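Quarterly update from the structural biology core.
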Amino acid sequence: MVIERLIQRHQLTFYLNVFNRFTDKPIGYLGNVSDGGLMLISQLPMLVDANFEFRLKLPDTDGCPQFIDLTARCMWCHEDVTPHYYDSGFILYQPPAEYAALITALQRYFSFQPLQASA
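Predicted structure, tokenized:
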């Protein structure tokens, strides 16, 4: 079944680690994000039609990581252009507000728009 993307994706130049929420072991890297999904780049293929529990660890200004926990379902998986890596597309179930804030921050960071002067 082919599902066409209706939501704009934002490519990430620098990858963020994605971890298993329960074991804290790294699974792969965040390849791109959208409001309702993400692409994971990993060294192992992901099981299609399976649910996963992810954790993103984002650096905070005080050096403590901020966690964003996500429940996702793998919709597709195929070999990446880089040998021995795989790309997998996931749909997110009820992503938290912190995930939407991450997307907004990434859009702002990668948009190269001039900063507004503060009053």
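Residues 10-96 form a domain with the Thrombin, subunit H fold (CATH 2.40.10.220).
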